[in-house]
């Protein structure tokens, strides 16, 4: 198998860090709660853990295989609902049926400490996406079909290499919403090869309930974004009409499957939902609505990462030519100027305060040395 360009050197390199995907550029912020919870609360401590895919019966596994192929033949698997036979044509995601397009496979140390642990998270970055976020910090991967094509069996072989050579704590499927059938088939193939680490489904939450049903029993951790609250914002910035309602249904379904995030005594997350919200400049009111909704409608024990590392990227801040109001003069302007800056500490603080006020208390926090911590 040919692995293209620079990513080849990074594959299975435990020191690999993707500069575009490092989520831990923390500032010195005050702790979220006056009382820091040290250690793992007993309710979220697991004695041992067997991944859910290793508990599936052979009959259930066979049903999932059939369902995956059925979805590919008439794909409505994400909210784009293209109704195409992916063996013959492609939908909005531009990805067919037999393979998934992958950009990078590597142990990754840019995730939350309980996901990356000591050895890294075995990350598989899929090319393509069913959203078109104008600020996407992975736009060179997500908005283009760059990378190499892998069948589900080849994907499974890479999971095994990540487990055996990389000694990773989990297999972390990044931006997989548009290749869920291939992902489901790959997990089933890897289970037959001896995979034994948890599966992390790293999603924008722009999933369908049918897609999440296919993943039920195969995924251990949902690493889920909740991006924006207002439909006008999702339409403008994510290029999706129904993001918020979809994310609400998706997060509820994920929580129903795997519950609140739980850990083994080594501090590594094994099962549950880890919810991410990236605070956006000038959109802290939407962040406050999101954390309130999560506390009131999903779980006050939800493990949540309120992320501060927004920076203008992709289309944001790019110069464009616009027509002036007088005399047809043309002047330079920048695109999406309202989010063309970093997030202010007070914006971040207001979302954090709202989360605490709503009753959330399990936060992913920075520590002093940015090393592994709970
Ligand atoms: S996964 Fe792709 S083909 Fe299927 S509905 Fe979504 S965008 Fe369309």
UniProtKB/TrEMBL annotation:
Domain of life (superkingdom): Eukaryota
Cofactors: [4Fe-4S] cluster
Cofactor comment: Binds 1 [4Fe-4S] cluster. The cluster is coordinated with 3 cysteines and an exchangeable S-adenosyl-L-methionine.
Amino acids binding [4Fe-4S] cluster: 129, 133, 136
Record keywords: Iron, Iron-sulfur, Metal-binding, S-adenosyl-L-methionine
Xref: Pfam families: Radical_SAM
Keyword Transport recorded: no
A single MF term (Gene Ontology): metal ion binding
Positions of the Radical SAM core domain: 124-293
InterPro entries linked to this entry: Aldolase_TIM, MJ0674-like, Pyrv-formate_lyase-activ_prd, rSAM, rSAM_sf
SUPFAM superfamilies: Radical SAM enzymes
Coiled coil: none
UniProt-recorded name of the protein: Radical SAM core domain-containing protein
């Amino acid at each position: 198998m040919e692995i293209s360009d620079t990513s080849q050197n990074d594959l299975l390199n435990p020191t690999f860090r993707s500069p575009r995907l490092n989520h831990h550029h923390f500032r010195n912020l005050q702790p979220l709660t006056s009382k820091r919870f040290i250690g793992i609360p007993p309710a979220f401590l697991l004695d041992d853990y067997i991944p859910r895919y290793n508990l599936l019966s052979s009959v259930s596994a066979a049903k999932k295989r059939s369902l995956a192929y059925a979805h590919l033949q008439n794909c409505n698997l994400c909210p784009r609902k293209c109704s195409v036979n992916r063996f013959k044509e492609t939908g909005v995601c531009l990805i067919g049926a037999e393979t998934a397009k992958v950009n990078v496979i590597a142990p990754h140390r840019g995730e939350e400490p309980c996901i990356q642990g000591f050895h890294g998270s075995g990350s598989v970055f899929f090319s393509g996406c069913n959203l078109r976020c104008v600020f996407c910090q992975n736009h060179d991967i997500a908005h283009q079909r760059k990378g190499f094509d892998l069948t589900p069996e080849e994907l499974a072989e890479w999971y095994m290499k990540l487990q055996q050579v990389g000694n990773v704590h989990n297999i972390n499927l990044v931006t997989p919403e548009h290749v869920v059938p291939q992902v489901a088939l790959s997990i089933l193939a890897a289970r037959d090869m001896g995979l034994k680490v948890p599966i992390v489904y790293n999603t924008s939450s722009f999933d369908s309930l049918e897609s999440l049903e296919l993943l039920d029993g195969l995924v251990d951790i949902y690493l889920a974004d909740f991006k924006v609250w207002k439909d006008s914002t999702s339409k403008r910035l994510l290029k999706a009409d129904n993001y918020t309602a979809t994310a609400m249904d998706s997060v509820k379904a994920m929580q129903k499957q795997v519950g609140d995030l739980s850990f083994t005594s080594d501090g590594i997350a094994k099962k549950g939902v880890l919810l991410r919200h990236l605070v956006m400049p000038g959109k802290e009111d939407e962040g406050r609505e999101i954390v309130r909704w999560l506390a009131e409608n999903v779980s006050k024990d939800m493990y949540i990462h309120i992320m501060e590392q927004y920076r203008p990227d992709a289309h944001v801040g790019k110069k464009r030519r616009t027509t002036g109001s007088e005399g047809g003069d043309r002047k330079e302007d920048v695109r999406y100027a309202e989010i063309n800056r970093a997030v202010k500490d007070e914006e971040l603080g207001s979302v954090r305060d709202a989360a605490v006020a709503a009753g959330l208390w399990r936060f992913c926090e920075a520590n002093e040395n940015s090393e592994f911590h709970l």
